[in-house]
Amino acid sequence: MATGLVGGLVEHPGFHGIVAEIDGRIVGSNFLDERSHITGLGPITVDPAVQNRTVGRRLMEYMLTRIRDDDRPGVRLLQATWHNRSLCLYTKLGFDTRALLSNMQGPALNLTIPGCDVRPATADDLVGCDALCVQVHGHDRHGELVDGVTEGTATVVEQQGRIVGYASSVGFLGHAVAEHNDALKALIGAAPSFFGPGFILPTANGDVLRWCLSNGLRLVQPLTLMGIGEYQEPAGPYMPSILY
Hints:
This protein has 244 residues and is of the alpha+beta class. The protein has helices spanning 2-11, 55-69, 84-92, 126-137, 142-151, 181-190, 206-214; strands at residues 15-22, 25-33, 39-41, 45-46, 74-80, 96-105, 117-120, 155-159, 162-167, 176-178, 199-202, 218-229, 238-239.
């Protein structure tokens, strides 16, 4: 699974990847998602045998220099909340905590929400979906959405023929935005599976979190959304990807 994930990132033109070496041996790696307006940092890995020797810091500093040199407006990442040392490192590097998140996992729900119709997204939906993302976050995630449409993972939810939510995919690497919680529930309920280790939901969205728990999903790990630069408090329900 790790090889498949990293291989996909290495081959994708929208990602920039680096490795750290000691005596010619790879001891760490880091990736930067450059597909959209805001960049997403990660996953970062460090060989356990050389942890606490500044490898992670140097991988992060390299990417932050690239972001500044490219004049990017902002960068975000998801941090494993239990890992105190990485939280401290990212904070010292300039990241601010933005939100607490819950990684949800379980079998497909096969549920529908009355009045919310979910269907596969097409290229014709891109403009409307981008506009919805701008409404919620202040920026679009066009590159990721295009990939979702191309790969057949993206979905939209409509009410009376109008798009009120979309997901690039419902899973670890996908994101979603919606006008209201029923639309977000509809996207989750219609997903045939939750790709990877599950999907990610803001913990503060108690309505959707309770709905997930009531329908048999479980919280497997807490995460922290952190960022540098441009950020708008979300103006509607959303689900981040593992990148942001």
